[in-house]
Design goal:
Elements lengths: L1 H80 L1
């Protein structure tokens, strides 16, 4: 009877130890994944901000190019009139 109790106790302790090791491993994997995700999120936000700045620069340059085209067309039409 004592032998059966010892086997059951060993199985329970082994199961508890296995569960504890797996839980710790799972937590470390989750923490590492969380850190990587936060890093990716920060990188994404930096790229989004840079993308927005570049879009604004493109819009500014397009506006300037259109303004210069208008000025050029005006000067060409003035010269044709002369």
């Amino acid at each position: 009877m004592l032998f059966v109790a010892a086997i059951i106790a060993a199985a329970v302790l082994g199961g508890a130890l296995t569960a504890m090791v797996l839980t710790n491993r799972w937590r470390s994997i989750v923490d590492e994944t969380r850190r990587e995700l936060e890093s990716m999120t920060a990188t994404y936000r930096e790229h989004e901000a840079e993308n927005q700045q570049l879009k604004q620069k493109v819009a500014d340059l397009q506006y300037e190019a259109n303004s210069l085209k208008k000025d050029l067309n005006y000067e060409r039409s003035r010269r044709q009139e002369d």
